[in-house]
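Quick question about two entries, pasted in order.
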Amino acid sequence: MALRQFVLAALVAGAAFAASAQDSVVYHFDTDLAQATKGLRNVRNHLDVDPAAKITVVAHANGVDFLMEGAKDGNGGAFAGPVSALAARGVKFEICEITLKSRNLKKEQFIQEATFTPSGVVRIAKLQVAGSAYIKP
């Protein structure tokens, strides 16, 4: 009987921990500004429903363009505002350094909210191994 109560208590404790655990998600941007527009909207909606989610946006290839100084969406709106608002909500924005080298870009060309990772695809893989859900808008 004691073993049964112990197992039941362990299951209840595990369920309580899982319910309180923070969701971790990686959003993968690698194409164009249209993907960034859609992806930022997805991230905002995600946080509106799950404000505690830990979100990392990893950008490589043409997906880095929305994080460049002066980048604008299809309607002429600057990406800097929405990115800054999401960063204030805890979203991390990471840019692939391999992309910088291959496209001859400099870190100084990007907005201040952007950070850099040696390889975007390696970073995505490591986040997934660590338990992050993967979303590609």
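Here is the second entry:
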Amino acid sequence: MSTYGHIRQYPTVPILTQEFYSGTQKETTGPELHRRKDGSREDATGTAFHFQLKECIEHSVLELLERHLIWRLWQEDLKVHTITSREWQPIPGSVRCVIAERLPFCLAICATDSFIGIGAKLSTSIQAALEGAIAEAIMIHDDYATPNSRAAPRHQETVLAMHDARRRMQVLGHVKKLPASQHELDLSMSINFGALAARLHGEAGEIWTATLPCQSGYCTKSRSDSLRHYKDPGRTGIPSIPML
């Protein structure tokens, strides 16, 4: 059980939350971090663990923004540049990558005849985003590609779907029809965290972060009511994105 799962057991435990941009603080309790209004869509969230508090909060916010960018990508709301294995040598032949235009965000797809693994990463440099997305895609593929894989309960439905040939073709077909960027991509591009967060501020609205001290570091959960979550595609006929 995660730290945030564990805190649900203690309804009176006070947790200090802070709005990421304004620094406004308020106190809440464990269950409030998980509560959703009836009929509301799933909020976008991001959770991270780190030994340093500043990095922990930043990684949590990056995870939150990453999930929103995945949703935008799935809605064809982001122009992307496709990287082939010839352009980016570390990519194995079975992995394709798309990068959101002018953002250090990458979606990697590791596809074989029987399974698709998808990884995503938003970072402060294109290289870090590529490497993180590729590693996640390959890890998911290797962990869940076999029919007898012991998938986590929350992944079992997606694993079964990705073993279905028709569903795999839906996913690959969607990625193929994404709009391609006309501009040559600078693979050395980097951006500092503050500039990246500020750039996405307009979409994010308020981002609330709650940090718990752990035995050997910090655990932060960030949440936004404004950002869309990738598990809420919002368009009939487009499959949810598997296991990101």
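Reply: Strands lie at 14-19, 25-29, 44-50, 80-83, 95-100, 105-111, 116-122, 208-214, 217-224. Residues 6-10, 232-236 have pLDDT under 50 and may be disordered. Hope that helps.
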